[in-house]
UniProtKB/TrEMBL annotation:
GO terms for cellular component: cytosol. Mg(2+) binds at E145, N147, E371. Binds 1 Mg(2+) ion per subunit. SUPFAM superfamilies: Glutathione synthetase ATP-binding domain-like (SSF56059), PreATP-grasp domain (SSF52440). This is Glutathione synthetase. Its EC number is 6.3.2.3. It comes from Anopheles stephensi (Indo-Pakistan malaria mosquito). One of its GO terms (molecular function) is glutathione binding.
Length: 479
């Protein structure tokens, strides 16, 4: 960790005495299971069993001013990514070197070129975005990444604030609840899906969730489905894998997407963001079939590409940002959250970036064009990784300055973890959810809709809950 690492004050005095700790942990585990803050086990998968999702026992402190900044900035970031996604020249030029060496990106671009050549059937897009931040040692937030596909944990995160309210009340700290910001991520994300569905004006059509063959993070997905069923009983949700869509999907006479004879007018991808979701040509054909349809996609293929790390790195350049954002005040607000991002392409100063990384690897993270966690290379592992790559292979990666966030102290509660859990040092990453609907020249809907907090051990590099190294949390706002 950085020499200037600071500690954030816990929301309550820790450690707790052991009898009280054991009592409240047991209650919190039951609360989590009974309210759906749960997942299926990867180790012992059982369709009929759930484990509570790893969680932090008490909410983690987060700077109030920076939380508010992230919330207020989200509609602007929605607009930025929306503009990027609708600029085909920029996307294809920016990803041209990556396309040559990264097979997955190349396959996505092949679909994009195909629908561009044919004429995009549905010009309206729906995006459910999540912008992730770490505070740095001075507490100012810096963006880690922006997610444009399968931005998860809106469902379960909505449960964390009530859970922490319960825990704090049990511990006699009801006065602290005013510092837990309200979180309506689930309803906000679902409402946007239904807004897109309404635009299609076809009452018999369904919303299609594209899912993995085996879904471990089942509660998070089903919460969306159940919320839609309860709030909008007339809107059906169907779930299919890419493999199933390849077998039973087809286009109607007006390019409607028909799945087993049911029209899907909105498609929400919870799978398809990593190579492992495509077993062969059948799954790629299914993705192309969806893109060719008049269904509103979340995300469309161009939105998926707009979320790549290479695009994120390009947007860190002031002249590129100006291409998409006209207002200097807005440009400054966005630039303020960016950390150092460097191309590894030879013709874009890649050799200089590589020299930087080799001279001081602890300052950097090496990132590929992948979502889903567990793909990055950190610190001392970077030199060997870079030296093993050809100049061309480097184009599939970007170099990002590492953010050294303040630490907090808390209890991480995991299924089959130690009892009582030890007091540990933690790092928290804030995600802000945004929704935007529109075409290239017309934004119809643009909102910030909620947040999530993922917290990991300060000694851990990766922080994904679904990937197994992080824990669910909620922010406790401090001044």
């Amino acid at each position: 960790m950085c020499a200037t690492t600071k500690m954030l004050q816990s929301c309550i005095s820790l450690p707790l005495d052991e009898p009280q700790l054991l009592d409240v942990v047991e209650k919190a585990k039951d609360w989590a299971i009974m309210h759906g803050a749960a997942m299926r086990s990867k180790q012992n998968f059982d369709q009929d069993a759930l484990l509570f999702a790893p969680f932090i026992l008490t909410p983690s402190s987060f700077p109030r001013k920076e939380f508010q900044k992230a919330v207020e900035l989200q509609p602007l970031l929605n607009e930025l990514i929306h503009s990027v996604a609708h600029d085909s020249q920029f996307l294809l030029t920016t990803l041209s070197s990556t396309e040559k060496v990264d097979e997955f990106t190349r396959s996505l671009i092949t679909i994009y070129r195909t629908v561009l050549d044919e004429g995009i059937a549905q010009t309206v897009t729906l995006a459910l975005l999540r912008s992730d931040y770490l505070p740095n040692f001075s507490d100012a937030i810096k963006q880690v990444e922006i997610n444009t596909i399968a931005s998860s944990f809106g469902g379960i995160s909505t449960i964390m604030t009530p859970m922490h309210s319960y825990v704090l009340t049990e511990l006699g700290h009801q006065d602290k609840l005013v510092n837990l910001p309200e979180n309506n991520a689930l309803s906000g994300l679902c409402d946007a899906m239904v807004e897109a569905w309404k635009l299609q004006a076809r009452s018999s059509a369904a919303i299609l969730f594209v899912v993995e063959d085996v879904t471990y993070n089942i509660c998070d997905q089903r919460f969306h489905e159940f919320y839609i069923r309860k709030a909008y009983p007339h809107v059906a949700v169907i779930r299919r894998t890419l493999t199933q869509i390849s077998k039973t999907g087809k286009l109607g006479a007006g390019k409607e997407l028909l799945i087993d004879g049911t029209e899907a007018s909105v498609v929400y991808f919870r799978a398809g963001y990593e190579p492992g979701h495509y077993y062969g040509q059948a799954e790629w054909d299914a993705r192309l079939l969806i893109e060719r349809s008049v269904a509103i996609k979340c995300p469309s293929i161009q939105y998926h590409l707009a979320g790549t790390k290479k695009v994120q790195q390009a947007l860190a350049k002031p002249e590129v940002l100006r291409r998409f954002v006209g207002d200097e005040t807005k440009i400054e607000a966005i630039r303020d959250i960016f950390t150092g991002l460097y191309s590894l392409d030879q013709d874009e100063g890649g050799d200089e970036a590589m020299a930087l990384a080799l001279s001081d690897p602890e300052r950097f993270v090496l990132k590929p064009q992948r979502e889903g966690g567990g793909n990055n290379v950190y610190g001392e592992d970077i030199p060997a990784a870079l030296k093993a790559m050809s100049n061309e292979e480097r184009s599939a990666w970007i170099l990002m300055e590492r953010i050294f966030p303040p630490l907090s102290t808390g209890y991480m509660v995991r299924p089959n973890g130690p009892s009582p859990p030890p007091l540990v040092q933690l790092v928290s990453e804030l995600g802000i959810f945004g929704t935007i609907i529109g075409s290239k020249d017309n934004v119809l809907y643009n909102k910030q809709v909620g947040h999530m907090l993922r917290t990991k051990l300060s000694s851990s590099n990766e922080g994904g809950v679904a990937a197994g190294s992080g824990a669910l949390d909620s922010p406790y706002l401090i001044d």
